[in-house]
Backbone:
Protein backbone atom coordinates (compact mmCIF):
# COMPACT_ATOMS: atom_id res chain seq x y z
CA UNK A 1 0.00 0.00 0.00
CA UNK A 2 1.40 3.43 -0.97
CA UNK A 3 -1.21 5.62 0.77
CA UNK A 4 -4.54 5.27 2.53
CA UNK A 5 -6.86 8.14 1.68
CA UNK A 6 -9.71 6.10 0.20
CA UNK A 7 -11.13 2.59 0.41
CA UNK A 8 -9.87 1.89 -3.12
CA UNK A 9 -6.27 2.03 -1.82
CA UNK A 10 -6.80 -1.44 -0.32
CA UNK A 11 -6.16 -4.41 -2.60
CA UNK A 12 -8.20 -7.03 -0.77
CA UNK A 13 -10.66 -5.62 1.75
CA UNK A 14 -11.85 -8.91 3.37
CA UNK A 15 -8.20 -9.95 3.77
CA UNK A 16 -7.06 -6.71 5.44
CA UNK A 17 -10.03 -6.81 7.83
CA UNK A 18 -9.07 -10.33 8.92
CA UNK A 19 -5.45 -9.17 9.35
CA UNK A 20 -6.59 -6.21 11.48
CA UNK A 21 -8.63 -8.53 13.72
CA UNK A 22 -5.62 -10.82 14.05
CA UNK A 23 -3.41 -7.81 14.93
CA UNK A 24 -5.89 -6.87 17.68
CA UNK A 25 -5.23 -10.20 19.40
CA UNK A 26 -1.47 -9.49 19.54
CA UNK A 27 -0.94 -5.75 19.00
CA UNK A 28 2.78 -5.64 19.81
CA UNK A 29 3.91 -8.41 17.47
CA UNK A 30 5.31 -5.88 14.96
CA UNK A 31 6.74 -3.31 17.37
CA UNK A 32 10.17 -3.51 15.70
CA UNK A 33 8.68 -2.49 12.33
CA UNK A 34 8.29 1.18 13.23
CA UNK A 35 11.56 1.62 15.11
CA UNK A 36 13.14 5.00 14.32
CA UNK A 37 10.16 5.87 12.10
CA UNK A 38 7.96 8.89 12.82
CA UNK A 39 4.27 9.46 12.20
CA UNK A 40 3.38 13.14 11.81
CA UNK A 41 -0.31 13.80 12.42
CA UNK A 42 -1.70 17.07 11.04
CA UNK A 43 -5.03 18.22 12.40
CA UNK A 44 -6.88 20.99 10.60
CA UNK A 45 -9.95 20.02 12.71
CA UNK A 46 -10.64 18.58 16.14
CA UNK A 47 -10.71 14.92 17.04
CA UNK A 48 -10.98 12.62 20.03
CA UNK A 49 -10.98 9.04 18.68
CA UNK A 50 -8.90 9.50 15.54
CA UNK A 51 -6.19 11.36 17.35
CA UNK A 52 -5.84 8.96 20.26
CA UNK A 53 -6.35 5.70 18.35
CA UNK A 54 -3.94 6.60 15.52
CA UNK A 55 -1.26 7.63 18.01
CA UNK A 56 -1.78 4.39 19.94
CA UNK A 57 -1.60 2.39 16.70
CA UNK A 58 1.70 4.02 15.73
CA UNK A 59 3.17 3.42 19.19
CA UNK A 60 2.08 -0.24 19.09
CA UNK A 61 4.26 -0.48 15.97
CA UNK A 62 7.19 1.18 17.78
CA UNK A 63 6.88 4.53 15.94
CA UNK A 64 7.50 8.03 17.28
CA UNK A 65 4.52 10.35 16.93
CA UNK A 66 4.42 14.12 16.39
CA UNK A 67 1.12 15.99 16.38
CA UNK A 68 0.63 19.41 14.82
CA UNK A 69 -2.61 21.35 15.13
CA UNK A 70 -2.21 23.10 11.80
CA UNK A 71 -4.33 26.06 12.82
CA UNK A 72 -1.60 26.87 15.36
CA UNK A 73 0.99 26.95 12.54
CA UNK A 74 1.29 29.06 9.39
CA UNK A 75 -1.77 29.59 7.25
CA UNK A 76 -1.12 27.50 4.12
CA UNK A 77 -1.58 28.54 0.50
CA UNK A 78 -2.82 25.91 -1.99
CA UNK A 79 -3.25 27.92 -5.22
CA UNK A 80 -0.62 27.49 -7.89
CA UNK A 81 0.89 30.82 -8.85
CA UNK A 82 -0.74 32.66 -5.95
CA UNK A 83 0.63 36.10 -5.10
CA UNK A 84 0.96 35.51 -1.38
CA UNK A 85 0.50 39.08 -0.17
CA UNK A 86 -2.59 38.32 1.96
CA UNK A 87 -2.93 35.99 4.97
CA UNK A 88 -1.21 32.81 3.75
CA UNK A 89 2.38 32.62 4.98
CA UNK A 90 3.58 29.33 3.50
CA UNK A 91 2.76 27.38 0.36
CA UNK A 92 1.79 23.72 0.69
CA UNK A 93 4.58 22.95 -1.84
CA UNK A 94 7.20 23.79 0.80
CA UNK A 95 5.18 22.73 3.83
CA UNK A 96 4.48 19.21 2.52
CA UNK A 97 8.11 18.66 1.51
CA UNK A 98 9.39 20.05 4.81
CA UNK A 99 7.05 17.88 6.89
CA UNK A 100 8.28 14.90 4.84
CA UNK A 101 11.78 15.59 6.27
CA UNK A 102 10.44 14.99 9.80
CA UNK A 103 7.87 12.24 9.26
CA UNK A 104 8.05 8.87 7.48
CA UNK A 105 4.25 8.87 7.18
CA UNK A 106 1.93 11.91 7.31
CA UNK A 107 -1.66 11.53 8.55
CA UNK A 108 -4.09 14.39 7.88
CA UNK A 109 -7.54 15.43 9.10
CA UNK A 110 -9.13 18.14 6.96
CA UNK A 111 -12.91 18.60 6.97
CA UNK A 112 -14.98 20.14 4.13
CA UNK A 113 -16.30 23.69 4.01
CA UNK A 114 -19.82 22.32 3.33
CA UNK A 115 -20.36 25.57 1.43
CA UNK A 116 -18.37 25.07 -1.76
CA UNK A 117 -19.10 21.60 -3.21
CA UNK A 118 -16.53 21.78 -6.01
CA UNK A 119 -13.79 22.90 -3.63
CA UNK A 120 -14.67 20.15 -1.13
CA UNK A 121 -14.82 17.48 -3.83
CA UNK A 122 -11.43 18.57 -5.14
CA UNK A 123 -9.99 17.42 -1.78
CA UNK A 124 -7.46 20.19 -2.28
CA UNK A 125 -5.81 19.81 1.13
CA UNK A 126 -5.22 16.06 1.15
CA UNK A 127 -4.50 15.96 -2.60
CA UNK A 128 -1.92 18.74 -2.27
CA UNK A 129 -0.13 16.71 0.38
CA UNK A 130 -0.34 13.58 -1.81
CA UNK A 131 1.17 15.63 -4.64
CA UNK A 132 3.96 17.45 -2.82
CA UNK A 133 4.88 15.24 0.15
CA UNK A 134 7.58 12.66 -0.45
CA UNK A 135 6.19 10.16 2.09
CA UNK A 136 2.89 8.21 2.27
CA UNK A 137 -0.31 10.03 3.27
CA UNK A 138 -3.09 8.65 5.47
CA UNK A 139 -6.51 10.26 5.69
CA UNK A 140 -7.78 10.77 9.22
CA UNK A 141 -11.01 12.11 7.62
CA UNK A 142 -11.04 14.35 4.61
CA UNK A 143 -13.77 16.42 2.97
CA UNK A 144 -15.48 13.39 1.44
CA UNK A 145 -14.07 10.27 3.10
CA UNK A 146 -13.26 8.67 6.45
CA UNK A 147 -11.62 5.40 5.43
CA UNK A 148 -10.09 4.57 8.83
CA UNK A 149 -13.55 4.75 10.39
CA UNK A 150 -14.96 2.48 7.67
CA UNK A 151 -12.21 -0.07 8.30
CA UNK A 152 -13.04 -0.14 12.04
CA UNK A 153 -16.74 -0.45 11.19
CA UNK A 154 -16.09 -3.40 8.88
CA UNK A 155 -13.96 -5.08 11.56
CA UNK A 156 -16.79 -4.68 14.07
CA UNK A 157 -19.34 -6.27 11.72
CA UNK A 158 -16.94 -9.12 10.96
CA UNK A 159 -16.38 -9.75 14.69
CA UNK A 160 -20.07 -9.70 15.60
CA UNK A 161 -21.91 -11.18 12.64
CA UNK A 162 -23.82 -14.39 13.37
CA UNK A 163 -24.62 -15.24 9.76
CA UNK A 164 -22.55 -15.37 6.59
CA UNK A 165 -24.38 -12.48 4.93
CA UNK A 166 -25.81 -10.11 7.58
CA UNK A 167 -28.33 -7.40 6.77
CA UNK A 168 -26.72 -3.98 7.31
CA UNK A 169 -28.72 -0.74 7.12
CA UNK A 170 -27.30 2.78 7.08
CA UNK A 171 -29.96 5.16 8.37
CA UNK A 172 -29.89 8.95 8.28
CA UNK A 173 -30.69 10.49 11.68
CA UNK A 174 -31.54 14.07 12.66
CA UNK A 175 -28.98 16.55 13.98
CA UNK A 176 -28.90 20.24 14.78
CA UNK A 177 -25.60 20.98 13.00
CA UNK A 178 -24.47 20.75 9.38
CA UNK A 179 -22.42 17.55 9.17
CA UNK A 180 -20.29 16.13 6.32
CA UNK A 181 -20.95 13.04 4.20
CA UNK A 182 -17.47 11.60 4.80
CA UNK A 183 -18.47 8.83 7.23
CA UNK A 184 -21.50 7.57 5.25
CA UNK A 185 -19.56 7.82 1.97
CA UNK A 186 -16.78 5.56 3.22
CA UNK A 187 -19.18 3.21 5.01
CA UNK A 188 -21.16 2.79 1.77
CA UNK A 189 -18.00 2.07 -0.22
CA UNK A 190 -16.82 -0.42 2.39
CA UNK A 191 -20.16 -2.27 2.51
CA UNK A 192 -20.22 -2.48 -1.30
CA UNK A 193 -17.03 -4.51 -1.03
CA UNK A 194 -18.23 -6.97 1.62
CA UNK A 195 -20.58 -9.94 1.58
CA UNK A 196 -23.50 -8.11 3.26
CA UNK A 197 -27.13 -7.36 2.40
CA UNK A 198 -26.72 -3.58 2.44
CA UNK A 199 -29.23 -0.76 2.05
CA UNK A 200 -29.61 2.92 2.94
CA UNK A 201 -32.61 4.75 4.37
CA UNK A 202 -33.06 8.52 4.59
CA UNK A 203 -35.66 11.21 3.94
CA UNK A 204 -35.99 12.42 0.34
CA UNK A 205 -33.37 15.05 -0.44
CA UNK A 206 -30.64 13.32 1.57
CA UNK A 207 -29.33 11.14 -1.28
CA UNK A 208 -25.56 10.79 -1.04
CA UNK A 209 -23.39 11.30 -4.11
CA UNK A 210 -24.90 8.87 -6.67
CA UNK A 211 -21.39 8.11 -7.95
CA UNK A 212 -20.78 6.59 -4.52
CA UNK A 213 -24.12 4.89 -3.80
CA UNK A 214 -24.33 3.43 -7.35
CA UNK A 215 -26.74 0.43 -7.24
CA UNK A 216 -27.08 0.32 -3.42
CA UNK A 217 -30.83 0.14 -2.60
CA UNK A 218 -32.33 3.27 -1.01
CA UNK A 219 -35.59 3.05 0.92
CA UNK A 220 -37.30 6.27 2.03
CA UNK A 221 -39.36 4.33 4.59
CA UNK A 222 -37.16 3.83 7.66
CA UNK A 223 -39.44 1.25 9.36
CA UNK A 224 -39.48 -0.89 6.22
CA UNK A 225 -35.73 -0.56 5.71
CA UNK A 226 -34.86 -1.57 9.27
CA UNK A 227 -36.99 -4.73 9.23
CA UNK A 228 -34.91 -7.82 10.17
CA UNK A 229 -31.66 -5.83 10.16
CA UNK A 230 -28.66 -7.37 11.90
CA UNK A 231 -26.71 -4.09 12.07
CA UNK A 232 -28.13 -0.56 12.02
CA UNK A 233 -25.64 2.26 11.46
CA UNK A 234 -27.15 5.64 12.31
CA UNK A 235 -25.53 8.83 11.07
CA UNK A 236 -26.54 12.34 10.20
CA UNK A 237 -25.30 14.07 7.07
CA UNK A 238 -26.30 17.27 5.34
CA UNK A 239 -27.90 17.35 1.90
CA UNK A 240 -25.60 16.58 -1.03
CA UNK A 241 -27.89 17.89 -3.78
CA UNK A 242 -28.71 21.09 -1.87
CA UNK A 243 -25.16 21.15 -0.69
CA UNK A 244 -24.61 21.86 3.00
CA UNK A 245 -28.29 22.40 3.77
CA UNK A 246 -30.29 20.90 6.64
CA UNK A 247 -33.56 19.88 4.96
CA UNK A 248 -35.08 18.07 7.92
CA UNK A 249 -34.73 17.79 11.69
CA UNK A 250 -37.68 15.38 11.90
CA UNK A 251 -37.18 13.52 15.19
CA UNK A 252 -39.29 10.67 13.83
CA UNK A 253 -35.99 9.59 12.23
CA UNK A 254 -34.23 9.34 15.61
CA UNK A 255 -33.25 5.74 16.27
CA UNK A 256 -35.24 4.17 19.11
CA UNK A 257 -35.06 0.80 20.86
CA UNK A 258 -38.29 -0.34 19.24
CA UNK A 259 -37.03 0.56 15.74
CA UNK A 260 -33.74 -1.22 16.41
CA UNK A 261 -35.55 -4.45 17.34
CA UNK A 262 -32.84 -7.15 17.65
CA UNK A 263 -30.14 -5.43 15.58
CA UNK A 264 -26.77 -4.21 16.79
CA UNK A 265 -26.47 -0.42 16.91
CA UNK A 266 -23.51 1.27 15.24
CA UNK A 267 -22.32 4.90 15.19
CA UNK A 268 -18.89 6.43 14.58
CA UNK A 269 -19.19 8.85 17.56
CA UNK A 270 -19.39 11.54 18.78
CA UNK A 271 -23.15 11.13 19.01
CA UNK A 272 -25.85 13.46 20.30
CA UNK A 273 -27.99 11.47 22.71
CA UNK A 274 -31.75 11.72 22.26
CA UNK A 275 -31.29 13.60 19.00
CA UNK A 276 -29.63 10.97 16.78
CA UNK A 277 -30.42 7.97 19.00
CA UNK A 278 -32.22 7.52 22.28
CA UNK A 279 -30.47 6.67 25.54
CA UNK A 280 -32.18 3.28 25.70
CA UNK A 281 -30.25 2.19 22.59
CA UNK A 282 -26.83 3.57 23.55
CA UNK A 283 -27.13 2.19 27.09
CA UNK A 284 -28.18 -1.26 25.90
CA UNK A 285 -26.13 -4.37 25.14
CA UNK A 286 -27.10 -3.91 21.49
CA UNK A 287 -24.90 -0.84 21.15
CA UNK A 288 -21.46 -1.68 19.75
CA UNK A 289 -20.15 1.88 19.53
CA UNK A 290 -17.38 1.32 22.07
CA UNK A 291 -16.18 -1.76 20.20
CA UNK A 292 -16.15 0.34 17.00
CA UNK A 293 -14.09 3.01 18.77
CA UNK A 294 -11.67 0.37 20.08
CA UNK A 295 -11.28 -1.04 16.58
CA UNK A 296 -10.11 2.37 15.36
CA UNK A 297 -6.69 1.55 16.86
CA UNK A 298 -6.32 -1.71 14.94
CA UNK A 299 -7.70 -0.24 11.72
CA UNK A 300 -5.04 2.48 11.92
CA UNK A 301 -2.42 -0.06 12.94
CA UNK A 302 -2.97 -2.38 9.98
CA UNK A 303 -2.80 0.62 7.61
CA UNK A 304 0.42 1.93 9.19
CA UNK A 305 1.88 -1.58 9.13
CA UNK A 306 1.19 -1.94 5.39
CA UNK A 307 2.73 1.49 4.70
CA UNK A 308 5.80 0.80 6.85
CA UNK A 309 6.36 -2.51 5.05
CA UNK A 310 6.39 -0.58 1.77
CA UNK A 311 8.83 2.21 2.79
N1 LIG B 1 -15.26 8.94 14.74
C1 LIG B 1 -14.29 9.87 14.75
O1 LIG B 1 -13.59 10.09 13.75
O2 LIG B 1 -14.15 10.50 15.95
P1 LIG B 1 -13.27 11.82 16.18
O3 LIG B 1 -13.88 12.91 15.34
O4 LIG B 1 -13.36 12.08 17.67
O5 LIG B 1 -11.88 11.54 15.76
Residues:
Amino acid sequence: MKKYTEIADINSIPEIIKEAIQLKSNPFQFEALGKHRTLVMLFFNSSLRTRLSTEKAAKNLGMYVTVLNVNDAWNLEYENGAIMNLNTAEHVKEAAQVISQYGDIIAIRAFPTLKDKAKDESEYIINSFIKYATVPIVSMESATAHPLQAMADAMTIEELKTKKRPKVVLTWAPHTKVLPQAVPNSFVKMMQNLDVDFSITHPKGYELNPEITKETPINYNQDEALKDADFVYAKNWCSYSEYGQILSTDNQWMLTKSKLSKAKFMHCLPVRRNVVVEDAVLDSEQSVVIQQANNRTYAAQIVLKKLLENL
User: Anything to note?
Assistant: The two ends are 10 Å apart (CA to CA). The chain has a mean pLDDT of 98.
